[in-house]
Amino acid sequence: DAKTTQPTSMDCAEGRAANLPCNHSTISGNEYVYWYRQIHSQGPQYIIHGLKNNETNEMASLIITEDRKSSTLILPHATLRDTAVYYCIVRVGSRDDKIIFGKGTRLHILP
Amino acid sequence: KAGVTQTPRYLIKTRGQQVTLSCSPISGHRSVSWYQQTPGQGLQFLFEYFSETQRNKGNFPGRFSGRQFSNSRSEMNVSTLELGDSALYLCASSPDRGLGTEAFFGQGTRLTVV
Known about the structure:
The complex is a heterodimer of chains A (111) and B (114).
Chain A: E1 9-13, E2 18-23, E3 32-38, E4 45-50, E5 55-56, E6 61-64, E7 70-75, E8 84-91, E9 105-110
Parallel strand pairs in A: 1-9
Antiparallel strand pairs in A: 2-7, 3-4, 3-8, 5-6, 6-7, 8-9
Chain B: E1 5-7, E2 10-13, E3 19-24, E4 31-38, E5 42-50, E6 53-57, E7 64-68, E8 74-78, E9 87-94, E10 104-105, E11 109-113
Parallel strand pairs in B: 2-11
Antiparallel strand pairs in B: 1-3, 3-8, 4-5, 4-9, 5-6, 7-8, 9-10, 9-11
């Protein structure tokens, strides 16, 4: 079973920041938080991952709480192309490549 | 550099037939994983290969098998196809073993069993 809990769907206005929450209260000390997204009928796209520090790349920012039991993916300026299903996953990494996907959050960007 | 390549992109097969799907990982990546995605079950892990050895296996029947070659390319085979095997089959590749590495997915092969 997936170790994460995410809202089923969310709306965000185009141009605004999209904040996608994820709960992972049973995360282990060596598990990373990963985010992927899947645009309709395409393969999941890697977005970002982190262990305990906040991370930022050209696509998004990842904020992990100090107790590591939850995190938030931030898309700073959402566009219509960001409409997708976003998956929050906890995994160790290459040492354990069995990615367990949950249902994800369906993000709708509203024009 | 080139991403993960899956062939073919689309496939139609008849019940009872067998099918082989191919995945070429990103150059230098040695780990290849396979996933099945259906509307009802979502994304489910099939198996993972590293250096030609199966390292992890999901809860699928023995009709689903795979292998990895010395150049890290991987194939998965489904024998005695059933209607329920209709799905998007996705392949992901990762670099050498290491904590916190990312996995990159291909565009998938959409299999339709009629």
